[in-house]
Amino acid sequence: MSGIFINFRKQDEPGFAALLQRELSRCFGTTVVFYASTTIRPGDNYEFGLLDGVRRAQVLVAVIGPRWLSTPHESGGRAVDHRTDWVRREIAEALSRGTRVIPILINDVERLTNATLPDDISHLVKCQYLRLRHDNLEYDLARIIAELGMHIGDRSQPDSLNQ
Predict the structure, then answer these.
(1) Considering the domain boundaries, does residue 112 fall inside one?
(2) What is the number of structural domains in the chain?
(3) pLDDT score recorded for residue 1
(4) Residue 25 maps to which CATH number?
(5) CA-to-CA distance for 14 and 31, rounded, in angstroms?
(6) pLDDT for 107-139, tens place per residue?
């Protein structure tokens, strides 16, 4: 079981997803964190790899930045509205399996609403979220790490969270 699956859009604040991958891997180990570009090996079937990663995860973190909803699909419209959108497919798979999904809102991104999401991922609006802000990075990372640790078996609390 991979533990933590990091779901993100490459067109939307990918630096925050990479930062999460680095910090979560440092705290929990690289085998616990699924991050597509480092977990799926060159030549492997990425479709199988992504879905298998979601199915094996205990928690999916959905990194949601300012362009998460508005990123266009190659055939027109918003990417999230297309069933072929991998971000949507990963979240829908996790939700359908009862996997814990934690939205990580980047900086001042507003919460999602039912009106903005397709039905198969509309439950995402009911999931309690965490924030990751550039001006509060250490505290936010410590809180995210502590929360994820409770769900993957590591109950240690980083010292910076208790300040």
Answers:
(1) yes
(2) 1
(3) 54
(4) 3.40.50.10140
(5) 21
(6) 999 999 988 999 999 999 999 999 999 999 999
Contacts 24+ apart (CB under 8 A), 11-19: 11/67, 11/71, 12/63, 12/64, 12/65, 12/66, 12/67, 12/68, 12/71, 13/63, 13/65, 13/66, 13/67, 13/106, 16/63, 16/65, 16/104, 16/106, 16/132, 17/63, 19/132, 19/141
pLDDT < 50 regions, the chain: 154-163
89 located within any domain: yes
Give the range of the structural domain holding residue 40, as residue numbers without chain letter.
Answer: 3-158
The pLDDT value given to residue 48: 95
> What is the pLDDT at residue 105?
97
**Alpha-carbon gap, residue 46 to 23, rounded angstroms:** 24
User: Domain for residue 163, yes or no?
Assistant: no
Element (H, E) at 146: helix 137-152
Domain assignment of residue 109, yes or no:
yes
CB 97, CB 55: distance < 8 Å: yes
